[in-house]
Amino acid sequence: MKKLLVPFDGSESALRAVRHAAAEATSGPAAEIHLLHVIEPLLPAMLSDPPDACEAGRLDAHFPAQAAEALAPAVAILVRAGARYSLHCLNGKPGAQIAAYARLAGCDAIVMGTHGRSAGANLLIGSVATQVVKLADIPVTLVK
């Protein structure tokens, strides 16, 4: 069975990528969509002594609810399409986590949205999609 990884951040472009992956998964050979939400840490990794309001335990307790809320619109699309899917949530830098998950899960391709910024803007602020294209060793389809 083909495995499609679809990173999902809740944006409109990510919703378009989910629709694209659902159509691909339901129109050809059997495929499963791995829907992945990556939560970027609020604190830099070098910060060793966070203030009480940002203790790791308190942040971790919030992740499952945040991920479920973020993934709900994508799940609705996949259910309506009748696509086979699984849900995943990771913490860390999105580009690196997406590429690492794709390798670990043995995914065949990544389908992700792109926000459509100009090349100049991507140079200045970076792009998760650009990072994934550089880091992934499988095909990446960008949906605008």
From TrEMBL:
Residues 1-144 form the UspA domain. It comes from the Bacteria. InterPro entries: Rossmann-like_a/b/a_fold, Universal_stress_UspA, UspA. Pfam families: Usp. PANTHER family: STRESS RESPONSE PROTEIN NHAX, UNIVERSAL STRESS PROTEIN UP12. Belongs to the universal stress protein A family. This is Universal stress protein. It comes from Massilia jejuensis.
